[in-house]
From TrEMBL:
Location(s), subcellular: Cytoplasm
Keywords, ordered alphabetically: 4Fe-4S, ATP-binding, Cytoplasm, Iron, Iron-sulfur, Kinase, Metal-binding, Nucleotide-binding, Phosphoprotein, Transferase, Two-component regulatory system
Reaction(s) the record says it catalyses: ATP + protein L-histidine = ADP + protein N-phospho-L-histidine
Protein name per its UniProtKB record: Oxygen sensor histidine kinase NreB
CC terms in the record's Gene Ontology section: cytoplasm; membrane
Species of provenance: Hydrocarboniphaga daqingensis
Record-listed E.C. numbers: 2.7.13.3
Biological function: Member of the two-component regulatory system NreB/NreC involved in the control of dissimilatory nitrate/nitrite reduction in response to oxygen. NreB functions as a direct oxygen sensor histidine kinase which is autophosphorylated, in the absence of oxygen, probably at the conserved histidine residue, and transfers its phosphate group probably to a conserved aspartate residue of NreC. NreB/NreC activates the expression of the nitrate (narGHJI) and nitrite (nir) reductase operons, as well as the putative nitrate transporter gene narT.
Location of the region described as Disordered in the Swiss-Prot/TrEMBL record: 1-21
Residues annotated as domain Histidine kinase: 182-273
A GO molecular-function annotation: metal ion binding
């Protein structure tokens, strides 16, 4: 008769117990994998946040370089070519005066034509200089610059452009003021080129720590889905550029339009503590000033 196997040599536990133990080991293995995946995802998420932050910093740096280049070109146009054309206009005027004094009517007439061309070139040079980088924006602030922009564009086209602001003499950081000015400029350019509108409005308000810009028109409007059309690539790039610039400052840009119902572009951007600066002393911010 065989001797029985001692209990300590038998397989530990019943089949049910062994199955439970195996299941527990499997759960622990799964939990370890889940924890490892979670840690990997957290590392990837943090890396993505760092990459996005670096991208925003780089994009802001590129944008500031572009604005600095605009400022330099504007100064070159105003102080270089502008002054040269001014000197040329003065010289032509003196020659024309001499021609009149000597009753040389033919020469005086030709000099008068040359003087008109020179003055027209001087005017265009000064306007281009201001559009590249208006000194009003740096010297007197956003509200005055927007008043000037809307008035200037209205004079060039058959659209009545109204501008109102509740910001007053309050100044923001140069970067934020430049952002709002550029988006207004881009939006109004689109109105003039594409809308067929007779009227447009620019509204700038601040509510708490939010700055809100709205540019609207009574034009023909369009289906925003058309911006995905390859034939509308230029328009979509302009809208995307405005949105990208808004996002650089933690803001958002919305575009609403429909055929026959005009278009409204709305920018909402936060004004952080570091974005406020003191009011510019003596800034003339009354509508229609300058």
């Amino acid at each position: 008769m065989d001797n029985p196997v001692p209990p300590h040599q038998q397989s530990a536990g019943t089949p049910e117990q062994r199955l439970d133990a195996a299941s527990e080991d499997y759960r622990e293995a799964v939990l370890r994998q889940v924890r490892a995946l979670t840690e990997d995802n957290q590392r990837l998420f943090q890396a993505a946040l760092r990459s996005e932050k670096r991208f925003r910093m780089l994009a802001k740096a590129v944008w500031k370089i572009q604005e600095d280049e605009r400022r330099r070109l504007a100064r070159e146009l105003h102080d270089g070519i502008g002054q040269t054309l001014t000197a040329l206009a003065n010289h032509l005027q003196r020659i024309a005066d001499d021609a009149h004094a000597h009753e040389n009517v033919g020469l005086a007439s030709r000099l008068g034509d040359a003087l008109d061309i020179t003055r027209s070139a001087l005017h265009d040079t000064r306007e281009l200089s201001r559009l590249l980088r208006p000194t009003l924006l740096d010297d007197l602030g956003l509200e005055v610059a927007l008043q000037w922009l809307t008035r200037t564009l209205a004079e060039r086209c058959a659209i009545a452009i109204e501008c109102s602001s509740t910001v007053g003499e309050q100044r923001l950081t140069p970067d934020l003021e430049t952002l709002v000015f550029r988006i207004t400029q881009e939006a109004l350019t689109n109105v003039i080129r594409h809308s067929g509108a007779s009227e447009a409005q620019v509204r700038l308000t601040r509510i708490g720590n939010l700055l809100r810009l709205q540019v609207s028109d009574d034009g023909r409007g369009f289906d925003p889905g058309e911006l995905n059309n390859p034939d509308k690539l230029g328009d979509s790039v302009g809208v995307r550029g405005m949105r990208d610039r808004a996002e650089l400052f933690g803001g958002r840009l919305e575009l609403k339009s429909a055929p026959g119902e005009g278009t409204r572009v709305t920018l909402v951007v936060p004004v952080e503590a570091g974005d406020d600066i003191s009011a510019a002393p003596g800034a003339a911010t009354k509508p229609g000033g300058l």
